[in-house]
TrEMBL record:
Official protein name in the record: Uncharacterized protein (DUF849 family)
Domain of life assignment: Bacteria
Species: Donghicola tyrosinivorans
PANTHER family per record: 3-KETO-5-AMINOHEXANOATE CLEAVAGE ENZYME (PTHR37418:SF2), 3-KETO-5-AMINOHEXANOATE CLEAVAGE ENZYME-RELATED (PTHR37418)
Signal peptide: none
């Protein structure tokens, strides 16, 4: 099971289309090229969403398998290829589990509040432990302190395996205007580190203060997820031309060397 990368790129997310930015990658060839461009400037992981022909977010086994098959021979061995089960208000926990079972990826992000909604512990325990036994790295998505506490309870009870535990603190997703600031990191990070000190964790942040938030997370021992899914603005408030530009800014600030 791979550890979380220092810099994971999230190039498209579930909501953006070409109307939001012409360089949002929505087709498989575009996602592949964006990923390779980001590797060249310091990314060592991908958080991938696939889209249908109308650019809409879908949990599609075939599309994910196609994307992973295209990327696998082109990326470094230790590069993490992570899919998502994001529900977008459309997909049930059962549909999310079916995606993971159908794709069998090396890594997947799963929101605690989405996967546990209305589900019994037996079902959740079987799913999370099956993922662990299969070597699938599950990154648990945490939007607030309540999510952190819910994950801690599941780990303590054995529903989620303690070994190889990974998490992502998301800043600004449910704030006004989907913007975040460094101060937003304090409470969830403190809760996570006090209840699950062994966790391998990262931060992502919506809005123009993305870079500052990610650097603050790094100072606390966290890793970073960056890209158009969360923000398209550079630190100087200019609009980034590409995901690679966002990755390059963070990599430079972190002192991460570019790929040879």
């Amino acid at each position: 099971m791979k550890p979380l990368p220092r810099i994971m790129v999230a190039p498209n997310g579930a909501r953006l289309t070409k109307k939001d930015h012409p360089n949002v990658p929505v087709t498989i060839p575009e996602i592949v090229q964006s990923t390779l461009d980001c590797i060249a400037v310091g990314a060592d992981g991908l958080h991938a969403h696939v889209r249908d022909e109308s650019q809409q977010h879908v949990l599609d086994v075939g599309l994910y398998k196609e994307l992973l098959a295209e990327l696998a021979p082109k990326v470094p061995e230790q590069f993490m290829l992570q899919i998502t089960t994001e529900a977008m208000g459309r997909y049930t926990p059962a549909a999310q589990r079916a995606l993971v079972e159908g794709v069998r990826p090396e890594a997947v992000s799963i929101a605690v509040r989405e996967m546990t909604a209305g589900e019994d512990d037996k079902t959740l325990r079987r799913f999370y432990n099956d993922c662990h036994e299969a070597g699938i790295a599950v990154q648990h998505i945490l939007y607030d302190v309540a999510d952190v506490r819910a994950l801690a309870v599941m780990v303590a009870g054995g529903t989620v395996p303690k070994s190889g535990l990974q998490a992502l603190i998301v800043l600004g997703r449910y704030s006004a205007g989907q913007t975040s600031s460094v101060v937003d990191l304090g409470a969830p990070a403190a809760a996570l580190l006090s209840t699950l000190p062994h966790v391998d964790w990262a931060v992502c942040a919506f809005g123009a203060y993305e870079t500052e938030c990610l650097l603050a997370g790094r100072a606390l021992g966290g890793k970073a997820r960056i890209g158009f899914e969360n923000n398209r603005m550079n630190q100087d408030l200019s609009c980034a031309s590409s995901n690679a530009e966002r990755v390059a800014e963070l990599a430079e600030a972190m002192g991460v060397a570019r790929a040879a």
